Amino acid sequence: MQLVSNNIGQVIREHKSVISYRENYTIAFSDLRENLKTSLIGHYQTVSALSEEEKITSDIFRRLATIVSIDKYEAFQALDNAWGQISTDIEILQTEGDGALTQVDPHMVTKKKNDKDVEVQDGWEGHILPFELVQEILLTAEAQELREMEKELASVSAEYSELIDSLSDEEKESGILNDAGTSFVNKEVKNKAEEALEDVETAEILALQEYLTLSQKDKAYFVKNTDSVDWTGMTANTNGAYTNAVVTARIKTLKQQHIFPEDSFEAKLMNVVATIEQENVLRKKIKEKSAALHEKTKVLIEGMDKEQALKILEEKWNVPIITGIMELSENFIRDFIARLTVLSEKYAVTFSGVNKKIETVESEVSSYVSRLSGDAFDAKGLVELKKLLGGVQ
Fold first, then answer.
1. How far out from the chain centre does Cα 169 lie?
2. Residue 373 banded pLDDT, cuts 50, 70, 90
3. For residue 392, pLDDT beyond 80
């Protein structure tokens, strides 16, 4: 068996019968969401969760009647997976009223305190409407920005593995790694980095260190007559002098700007310190951004009108059902592609290829037989073996 293309998935997905199958499947369920909206959202105050699930199940089975490739009980499972939450929400709304739609509750978590488990509040959560869903629909830009920051943080955190791999065995034993050698001990890294920076000296650093030892009277003359210092890099007092704090900060900055040889231990330490600082900055920004988005979501839910709240509710209830059912056709196609791929790999060697390989082996064995010798009886046996291998006619 030999396929006309190596890209089995593409060939199958582009085949007219598969395209037709997907179109027919989509048409069969084209108005399901609208029907769900009418029966569930339109009658959430009076609908019976139990009987409505049965009605929707019958409707789904009816739609699948002409689509023989899908197991109807898989479709039922897609519905049932979402129905538990829908049923709970219906009960709350019918018991507590419309106010539950825009209600926000304290989010309680269990934490250890004095070796005991205690419940404490950790933000807020929607009584009915999930914060994450509201953010996805109504606060899209802010939520996306937060996700991008979290991705950046994950990327920065991943750099630690590369930094550890760059260390020599001796450097790994310097105390900057944990006992398992899998992560940096930040305190030790910073201590080692500070030790390395203490030895950094340049003309400007030496001049600034000398400045700190001078009397107030001599400082003005020193500033005027010392060209090795970029005095514009600091802010002077009204009298033209520089405070010890300003000069000390400048010395620290100059030392941190020093470039160590690329593969030196000191250079690696500076890279780790820079990564730690970048990670800390990102964590702080994410924490602040997350808290602000959380509070904005709380206010938004509490201030929603009924129409807007029901739109969010429709997304929460109906989208998981539709998504689960529509995935069934894609799962069927993916499974078919996977099965065909296994078959193509199993029979990748064609029969003609096998025959050719056999002929090659026979020829090689026949050649080896020709080199063998023996008495008359052995010689007869070797001739017969060559005939069998096709070497003698």
1. 31
2. low
3. no
* Single-letter code of the amino acid located at 240: G
- Max Cα–Cα distance, the chain, nearest Å: 121
* 26-74 per-position pLDDT tens digit: 999 999 999 999 999 999 999 999 999 999 999 999 999 988 789 999 9
DSSP codes joined into one string, 317-357: HHHHHHHHHHHHHHHHHHHHHHHHHHHHHHT-S-HHHHHHH
Strand partners, 184: 177
Amino acid at 199: D
Q: How far apart are CA 227 and CA 81, in angstroms?
A: 75
Please give the pLDDT value at position 349: 62
Q: What distances in angstroms separate CA 23 from CA 27, 28, 29, 60, 324, one per listed residue?
A: 6, 9, 10, 17, 17
Q: What is the DSSP letter of 48?
A: -
Q: What angle do CA 188, 193, 198 make, to 5 degrees?
A: 125
Distance of alpha carbon 389 from alpha carbon 371, whole angstroms: 15
Instruction: List alpha helices for the chain, DSSP H.
Output: 8-14, 16-28, 32-36, 49-63, 72-96, 131-138, 140-165, 169-172, 186-198, 203-213, 216-225, 244-256, 265-302, 306-346, 351-370, 376-389
Q: CA-CA distances (angstroms) from residue 10 to 6, 15, 17, 244, 358?
A: 9, 8, 13, 70, 34
CA neighbor of 126 nearest in space, from 146, 101, 93: 101
Give the integer Cα–Cα distance in Å for 359 and 389: 9
Q: How many CB atoms lie within 10 A of CB 158?
A: 9
Quote the percentage of the chain above a pLDDT of 90: 74
Closest CA to 315 of 27, 28, 31, 33: 33
